[in-house]
Amino acid sequence: MKPIYLVLILILTFFTASPASAQQMKVGYWTSGFSLGFGTVMEQMKFAEQEGIKVEWVKFGEVNGPTRAIVSNAIDVAFAAPSTNSIGIAADGVPVKLVLATQIAEAQVVVLDGSPIKAPADLRGKKIGMSPPGSATHALTTAILERNFGIKENEYAVAPGNEAQLAQFLTQKDIDAGVLRSVTLAQMSDVKLRRLASVVEEWKKLTKGSAPPILAVTIVYSSYLDKNREAVAKFIVATRKALQFGSKNKPKVAEMLEKAANMTAQDARAYAEQWDNAYIASFEDADIASLKRMYEIVPTTGGVKNTARDESFDQGPYKRSKQIK
Predict the structure, then answer these.
(1) Residues 30, 162: one domain?
(2) Is there a single domain that holds both residue 99 and residue 113?
(3) Are 3 and 33 in contact (CB under 8 A)?
(4) Chain segment 182-208, per-residue pLDDT in tens
(5) Distance between terminal CA atoms of the chain?
(6) What is the CATH number of the domain that holds 235?
(7) For the segment 265-277, what is each residue's pLDDT rounded down to a tens digit?
(8) Contact status, residue 236 vs residue 48, Cβ threshold 8 Å
(9) For 242, phi and psi rounded to 5 degrees?
């Protein structure tokens, strides 16, 4: 082989192989919860790929699947992973960094339209349907009831359940009030309901801040982040573009959800319409403060809870993403 051809081959190998390997990323997300919408848009519209990242999407059918996978370094990035669990594993010494907030802990406290309950203070002694103990939404709701309305946890009964169960409990009058996400309420359009309080607004009152409670975050394995900071920044750029796309193209989002999740057209539209209430792509100081505050009030189920570490929150890729055109 002539030297000139050998040089050309080496040049071509460098420009085609090296950048691709440097930009590879294995990303996991939960496909059975509300992170489904954001993940579906990211995956199907190829926003990360448009930023030059070669993504391998890894899907999980259980909420803690992505966090367990990143603990074992089976994935590089956990997209829309549960916020308090993510802070917890970082506090326990797992080498991961939180780099972006992606989902709001959004819910409404509601009653049937004819209910004698007129305000949250009237919930003392009542039966309230909400997500099970140990969940972020449950912890937020109980903290809000106690700190904003003076109702202690032993002063009402809790009926735990998932969104579909809680909607059924409320419709059948098995509970006096329910704590339900707006997407569920939108799918209950044939039931007349009255809203008593917003978890997001009450959280802001409790914390005296402007940031919403954060339900999910993006976390990155530390060694991957150390070697691929620019790729992580570009992934955040992609996330921000996906957020904007979903906000401006809700019919398209609904269409994708019909196919990806076998939703009815009505449920897919109701889901897509809640995009702006559910998703964010932010990692400002106020977001981190909200995450730390949430972690403080969420009860631990495994004994003593370690304090959230400042070094677990890395704003560098988010700040860098703002500079990328």
Answers:
(1) no
(2) no
(3) no
(4) 888 988 989 999 999 999 999 999 988
(5) 43
(6) 3.40.190.10
(7) 988 998 899 999 9
(8) no
(9) -65, -40
Same domain, 266 and 226: yes
Average pLDDT, whole number, for the chain?
89
Question: Which one of 140, 175, 207 terminates a domain?
Answer: 207
pLDDT in tens, 282-306: 999 999 999 998 888 765 444 457 8
The side-by-side arrangement of strands in the sheet containing 54-60 is 54-60, 24-30, 77-82, 214-221, 96-104, 279-282
The token duo for 7 is 């040089």
Place of tokens 């039966």: 127
C-alpha to C-alpha distance for 270 and 253, rounded to whole angstroms: 11
Kindly report each contact of residues 44-48 with a partner whose C-beta sits within 8 Å and lies 24 or more positions away, as own/partner.
Answer: 44/256, 44/260, 45/242, 45/245, 47/238, 47/239, 47/241, 47/242, 47/245, 48/234, 48/235, 48/238
Tokens linked to 203: 């959280």
Residue from 217, 242, 198, 181 nearest 37 by CA: 242
Domain that holds residue 197: 108-207
pTM summary value: 0.83
The string of DSSP codes covering 192-235 is: -EEEEEEHHHHHHHHHTSSSPPEEEEEEEEHHHHHH-HHHHHHH
Number of domains in the chain: 2
pLDDT at residue number 260? 87
Say if residue 100 is in the same domain as residue 118.
Answer: no
What six digits make up the tokens of 37?
Answer: 């919408």
Residues 222 and 73 in one domain: yes
Nearest to 104 by CA among 314, 302, 276: 276
Distance (Å, rounded) from C-alpha 29 to C-alpha 44? 14
Backbone phi and psi for residue 63, each to the nearest 5 degrees, phi listed first: -60, -40
Length of the chain: 325
